[in-house]
Sequence to fold (326 residues):
Amino acid sequence: MLTACDREPSKKPTQASGSTSSGGQATGVVVSNGGRKLTFEHVPQRIITTGQGPAELLLKLGVGKSIVGIYYGAQQPVDPAIAVPFRELTSLSTDAPPSKEVVLPLKPDLVLSAFPTMDFDSSRGGATIDDFAKVGSQVFGYTATSCKPSEATFEMFLSDVADIGKILRVEQTAQQLVEECRSRIAAVRQRVAGREKVKLVICFSASDQMLGVFGAGLLNDLVDAAGGTNVYSHEDATMVNASKEDFAQRVIEVYVIPDLPAVPSMRADSSAAWLFKTFPQTEASKRRRFVGIGVEKLNVGYRNVEFVEELARSLHPEAFAESGKP
Fold:
């Protein structure tokens, strides 16, 4: 399993080693990932992604034709810019990882995972990293979801993108995406600089059955960039089952709620209504203040930039009143 952040994020392109033939073509790339050294002598031609986000990234980088399968299919709204090619991808499973019998015969060169600590858990019935290794498949897992949650940053994802670009020999395209993401987030930070941080909570479940909030993890870095602070950020776990008593005592100015309108139980407006009724004493309830953001923008990926921009505009509308997009 991948359990440790194996490198510090850098604001420069990640340095992955490689060699060049006399004709100028790269013949090998070596990267460090999850405490393992991955060596790619050739450009991967058969790729499996363990989820929607990594598949969207590969399509964004222009290498979608190499995808031979995707875990879970499209569980959330797809980036409109790549929606058409995404529909052509082969879904290997829906709610659970596909079985070994399904994925191993595909013999992928590369398996790209957004949640490596979960995607290869044998107790869930799917193939492990060792299983893939036995058929010659190498696994690259996102760093921000395989490290200690309190250390996760968006910069880790951008470093991963740079490495993936090197592995797939699309360094320039990858670096363009990295710089675009950095530029857009920097513009937001500049807008909200000097303004008081808004105290918020991110509720992934808000009902009589469960009050679930996000604690440690990547989202806190994104919230900070948007000019907010998560009141549950000091929790050890990424996902926390909060008690109503503890929740009621927190200083909460805004509820941030992942929104998936197609699923009634994940509609942001419905969750907000329950929070307003159940916790009338919070500032967020008194002011009827909540932010619904598409759930697809919360999972680690390049669409996290949209999360930052949308959240910042909701938390600090006055900072964006003068002109258009940051």
